[in-house]
Specification:
single chain; mainly alpha; globular
Length: 89
């Protein structure tokens, strides 16, 4: 049992950075377009998209570029929320 759990944790360790980028709630359509341009095919999620399908696309080589897009999405979301609260009456 301990060996199984260790193996699962090692797999998670490999995929966690990509999963955190793909599950970023700040990602908008324009960010998915940028990421699709980076890989050369459409990776925009739809109703049939699963994490398993995304992980099978072998997106790890693009991780650094995806991280830039994700960080930008997070910053825009944070600024949008800040502007909203500053403009409250």
């Amino acid at each position: 049992m301990r060996l199984y759990v260790s193996g699962v944790l090692l797999l998670l360790q490999d995929y966690l950075p990509l999963v955190s980028i793909l599950c970023n709630s700040g990602m908008r359509a324009r960010h998915w377009v940028k990421m699709s341009d980076i890989v050369g095919f459409d990776i925009t999620p739809d109703a049939g998209t699963t994490l398993r399908k995304m992980l099978k696309l072998n997106l790890h080589p693009f991780l650094a570029q995806f991280e830039e897009v994700s960080v930008g999405a997070t910053k825009v979301t944070s600024l949008t929320v800040l502007v909203y609260f500053v403009n409250l009456p």
